[in-house]
Amino acid sequence: MYYITIETSKQAQIDSISKKVRKLRCEHLWTQAELAEQVGIGRATVARIETGKCVPRMTTIRNLAEVFGVSTQELVTDPEVLWGHT
pTM of whole model > 0.85? Predict the structure, then answer.
């Protein structure tokens, strides 16, 4: 039972990062290809991040945060997931 709780929490964090990346990209009116170029990753990688099919590496998270003008903390932390109010 404890293992399931950890996995659910991890998936919730992945989903949170995915939603934030997509939201920020759309707010900047960028295509996935434009974001990928700025971050130095492939467009398919951006798509996988946005759909929660892959977890970005820390270097990618730092680059995404820099491009979006937010802190890495803002990008990876969801207060609702952190405090269990999902």
Answer: no
